[in-house]
Fold these 2 entries.
Entry 1:
Amino acid sequence: MRVARAFNCHLSLADMSQQMSCKELMKVLGLGAVAFVLGVEWLNWLKRRLRDSRGPLKEVLFFPSPQVCVEHLFIRHKHFPCACPLPHGVETSFSRLLVHLLSARVSLDLCVFSFSHMELSRAILLLHKQGVVVRVVTDRDYMTITGSQIGALRKAGICVRHEMSSAVHMHHKFALVDSRKLITGSLNWTLTAVQSNKENVMVTEEPELVGPYQQEFQKLWEANDPANHKPQYTNGQLNIKTCKDK
Amino acid sequence: MRVARAFNCHLSLADMSQQMSCKELMKVLGLGAVAFVLGVEWLNWLKRRLRDSRGPLKEVLFFPSPQVCVEHLFIRHKHFPCACPLPHGVETSFSRLLVHLLSARVSLDLCVFSFSHMELSRAILLLHKQGVVVRVVTDRDYMTITGSQIGALRKAGICVRHEMSSAVHMHHKFALVDSRKLITGSLNWTLTAVQSNKENVMVTEEPELVGPYQQEFQKLWEANDPANHKPQYTNGQLNIKTCKDK
């Protein structure tokens, strides 16, 4: 009985489609497409509402972080054959830090006291290569210590400014991703800090926190513009490097 | 005409009060008192609602901070006669930091790499004297440098634990006030950091941020319990100090 009903139904639908003119069919298909688009839009709206109800991103990372392979964060091939001996597919505080940094699409403003970590330097160079506008403010004394990556950044064309006063340390350790995500804490960008020390990093998109740090960065960026300072000479050589702003 | 009406009204009210019995007067006064209390409660509720609508406390402080008199934060006499030559009545990043620390009523958990600032030490000692349970975790190497206040805290009976491993730096710089307010940033508790360096401190009551830091403190507190570590001797002398937990 059920089969017969289904058959009748099938027949009547087939008849309908035969009876429908091409114009009507187009109408039905058009309305279906509109309904589909509206459905997708509604789902996106629902997703945004759910995310907004949790509030802006707030994440806390603690260090030291165990050493794991982070190669997949730099080279995003689907089947990336990494043969290194480190553990793979493990999420750590350091890999989360890298993920947040590499999420930059427009700009990265970095204010860091000490910067000698190779992988973090690689991340910054990659962003610069991808067209992200990178600006760095660092400490005058610590930028020249052994292993500092500041030279590598400058060599690649990244604009770096340093604290002009030798009596003051630029001791901040924060980054601003696309002017909307703040990464800040006690962590200097060194291997010891990442792998050995007890450190903390907070990642937030809370506008009330991001705003003041963005203003502080801009203040330091302008205050340490070499164009506003008299060049200083040591042994007859100019010791303030200039950079080409983007 | 208006004066006459007001006069009549005044007369009738006077008559009413004369006609009211003592019992009725008490009723009116009682109702008035209830209305007043309800009004005050409603205003407090409105205040709380307005505060809640702004979300939990979020404050960012940048350093260096200009040197001003902070004596009034320690001694809260109404007419405190401070004769020091520093500017008075000025709010700075440092005075805000002190205000937040001195707001502790129950507990203060402090995790700080380097601690030599005299005024900050004074604040911690005052809280301890007032009965606030203070716990400090610090760095093994930096707690013995010249000017360190760790000895003064221990001498006053405050329980201090230090990072047990000599290969690791306890590089955090955060404090938890009453387990609900987080103070964290790049600032070590030194005079150079407060008065000279470019530093940042964030103060927040956001539970999603306070929670992880409270857990981290507890983890470090337990991990560095001298009772769980073998005593180490240098030149025949015990070099791990024990403390009496509260």
Entry 2:
Amino acid sequence: DTQTKQIQEGISHVEKHFGELCQLFAAYVRKTARLRDKSDLLVREISLYADTETPNLKNGLKNFADQLAKIQDYRQAEVERLEAKVVEPLKVYGNIVKTKREDLKLTQSARNREAKQMQQLERMRQRNPSDRQIIAESELQRATMDATRTTRQLEETIDMFEKQKIQDIKRILGEFVTVEMTFHAKALEVYTTAYQHIQSVDEEGDL
Amino acid sequence: DTQTKQIQEGISHVEKHFGELCQLFAAYVRKTARLRDKSDLLVREISLYADTETPNLKNGLKNFADQLAKIQDYRQAEVERLEAKVVEPLKVYGNIVKTKREDLKLTQSARNREAKQMQQLERMRQRNPSDRQIIAESELQRATMDATRTTRQLEETIDMFEKQKIQDIKRILGEFVTVEMTFHAKALEVYTTAYQHIQSVDEEGDL
């Protein structure tokens, strides 16, 4: 029926988009790691250049390179934390969605079975109204109750899935922002020191 | 002589290391641009996912994506400013160093020519002390003065080169830090808004 189709479509959307988000966040992390690699080379080169310079400038450049290296340590932490708190949970989500889809399939087929059974009982009663001893009222009642229960179960499963999904995407995107903000805040702090080191190089001192 | 060799070595160091710094900063900028590209894809994907979602979550995701897009605009500005204020000045520096090397070569050869001329005059005076009319004292004096002047010019050229170099590397690294800090500060600000948008999604509202 329509409701079933809508539910399955919803799950398919989540499966598809969480999968794509996972891949794109993983690519974001990889590019961040490449930026860290290039920055590491910059740190090394600034230090090599410093070794060829006069004492004041050499000192300023060495301190500057140290700060830039510190930022790359924070970038490395950023990479590891994004991997653990964003990419990994999104990857795991693929399995969660698969399990949910199975749960849903089982509940739906139970529901369909019961609905069929109820229709059958109803038809029998209409054809042979006198056969009350054969199709006991109690049996029909039980079937009705079962169908109601299974439908409620189905609704609960879907509600739980939806609720879990909203909580998970909120948590995952929240973690992404937290990790990024931590990095940006640290970078700001360390760059402030780096700026002081390079600006304090005495322009006359080495002449 | 030793001084000349030291000076030429110094200029070669600057030429080599400014060139390598230029290439590495250019690579840093390229990697930053790649990170922006991936982030743009993330923004698009979050927005596509939002379109398949219930109103509250959709709204939160769309706002989140808008903020993430804003950060990529700032990253684009970062890329352009690093290109203009760090990579380009380092590239131009290659030519400055070449010009300085030429200046230095000219001054040094003038100095050598004068030194030789002085030695010649001195030798002539020692061999023929009587030929005072031929090798006028005034001529020797002039040669001495010229040599002194050229040496002072050479020293000034080198001092200027050194001073300019210190000012330039301070300015260029200072610009790098300023551009980076501006980006990090803006990112912090925008992520704060993004966090609020995603955390304010009502978990019950869409059920």
